[in-house]
Design goal:
- The structure is a single chain.
- The chain is built from 6 helices and 3 strands.
- Helices cover 69% and strands 7% of the residues.
- By secondary structure, it is mostly helical.
- The protein has helices spanning 2-15, 32-39, 43-51, 68-82, 87-98, 105-153, and strands at residues 29-31, 58-60, 63-67.
Length: 154
């Protein structure tokens, strides 16, 4: 677990430049509302991540208490979701991180790179597709505008 904590802290530092979270007070534990505000996600989203097995906060009765480690995991999860990494891919990465040590840190980082590279390629394809759609929209608007003039003349 110590290795996992160190690795997650390392990943956080590498991703920190692209994270958009407001600062949060360094504490031993956090309530769900504090993390919801810090991460700018709904309470429902945090509960969903727990149900999905991505983290397991401590409980005080019905109240969830998130540790600093939970906060760091959530910062990674939310950052990857903001980049549109699938929940399936995030679960797989977290399993690699939490695993029995079969996946080395370089292997995990390589997998993150592969996922992000694939997403960037998908985004470029989506941009190309949207540009084609916009060209068709422009043609339709031009055709409609040309038709308006013909309708006025009749």
């Amino acid at each position: 677990m110590v290795k996992t904590k160190k690795f997650i802290a390392d990943v956080i530092e590498r991703l920190r430049p692209i994270m958009t979270f407001d600062p949060i007070e360094d504490r031993v534990s956090y309530a769900i509302g504090q993390l919801s505000s810090h991460l700018r996600v709904s309470l429902r989203t945090l509960r969903f991540y727990e149900q999905a097995g991505l983290l397991a906060p401590d409980r005080d009765g019905l109240r969830r208490l998130y540790s600093r480690d939970d906060l760091e995991r959530l910062e990674i999860i939310v950052t990857l979701r903001e980049l549109e990494v699938s929940l399936t891919a995030i679960k797989s990465l977290m399993s690699m991180i939490d695993g029995d040590g079969r996946a080395s840190e370089p292997e995990i980082l390589k997998r993150v790179e592969e996922i992000l590279c694939e997403l960037a390629g998908d985004n470029l394809a989506r941009i190309d597709e949207l540009q084609k759609i916009n060209a068709r929209i422009d043609d339709a608007r031009r055709n409609l505008a040309d038709g308006r003039g013909a309708l006025r003349e009749s």
